[in-house]
Amino acid sequence: MDIQTFSKQMVAVLNTTIPKPDDQYDSEIVDSSAIDLHYLPHQAPTVNSLLDSIYPVPPYSTVFGTCEDGLPFLMDLRDPAPGSILILGDPGSGKSRLLRTILSSASLINSPEKVNYCLITSNDRTFYSITGKPHCMAAASPYHRSASELIMDLSAITEQRRNGRRRGPAMILAIDDLAKFAGERLDYDVFIHFKWLLEEGPKSHIWPIITLDVQQLNKVDKRLLSAFGSLFFSNVQSPRHLEEIAGVYSPPSRSLFPGYQFEFMYAGDWIKFTLPAVVE
């Protein structure tokens, strides 16, 4: 399947980042000969230019990046097919940058009445502008009780929507670093509600979109990992982490430009996309 066909199908199927920020490079060695120079960061379009290229943009959409043929990769927050999303990668590989791009583009495309979001992060510097938008309903530290309360509240909203007692906008639950929130100290009752939210939330237009350092995979209960519907990968230098813990036996390529490029599997093929520049 060529990438143009894939991008069109994704629009149809989906209907259409204080610790060191993830959006800075690690000192890891990258084989530059394996990197597609056409997609170096300075050539990446801005979110605004991507949106201009497909005007009018379908409502309830958010932008992930640009596919290899230059077409934007959109996701429709009304279609539950992808399920909850886990963004995996090495430290400094751009996981927080992707999460920030998703939230920023959602707020550019949609009013708060259509799409809003809640954020759990300790990465204040990367997400400072995100928390100041009217679309941000709540922001909490992963170490504070309010983060657990947020999970319980969103679980209750999901249950109300499933029973037809409540309607409302599409909501993104953005968690930057799953291991910090869902480590060993997570209360069992919160754990049960969180796992259920991962499994059932997208069906009620409540979207957990979460980052995780692959080196911290063993700190997260496998039952949570299995609740995600879609896995997105940035640079992973040690695929054995994925094979042993996440159950991924066909690891993505190691030629991704760290901080800017990602892959995910669709219909048996690895699909690569590049993050846009965010201008706010």
Features:
280 residues, alpha/beta, ten-stranded mixed sheet, 9 helices, 10 strands, 30% helix, globular
Describe this structure in words.
The radius of gyration is 17 Å and the shape is globular. With 280 residues, it is α/β, with parallel strands linked by helices. The termini are far apart. The longest helix has 18 residues, at 145-162. The protein has a ten-stranded mixed beta sheet. 30% of the residues lie in helices and 21% in strands. The protein has nine helices and ten strands.
**Share in helix:** 25-40%
Label the structural class: alpha/beta
- The strands making up the biggest β-sheet line up spatially as 2-1-10-9-8-3-7-6-4-5
Could you tell me the radius of gyration in angstroms? 17 Å
Overall strand count: 10
Overall form: globular
The separation of the N and C termini measures: 35 Å
Sketch the topology as an H/E string, one letter per element: HHEEEHEHEHEHHEHEHEE
Q: Strand count, sense and closure of the main sheet?
A: 10 strands, mixed
Portion in strands: 15-25%
Poorly predicted ranges: 1-39
What's the overall average pLDDT, rounded?
A: 81
The tally of helices reads 9
Write the layout of secondary structure elements.
Layout: H1 3-13, H2 47-53, E1 61-67, E2 72-76, E3 85-89, H3 95-109, E4 115-120, H4 128-131, E5 136-140, H5 145-162, E6 170-175, H6 178-181, H7 188-200, E7 206-213, H8 222-225, E8 230-233, H9 240-246, E9 261-266, E10 269-274
Parallel strand pairs: 3-7, 3-8, 4-5, 4-6, 6-7
Antiparallel strand pairs: 1-2, 1-10, 8-9, 9-10
Helix pairs in contact: 5-7
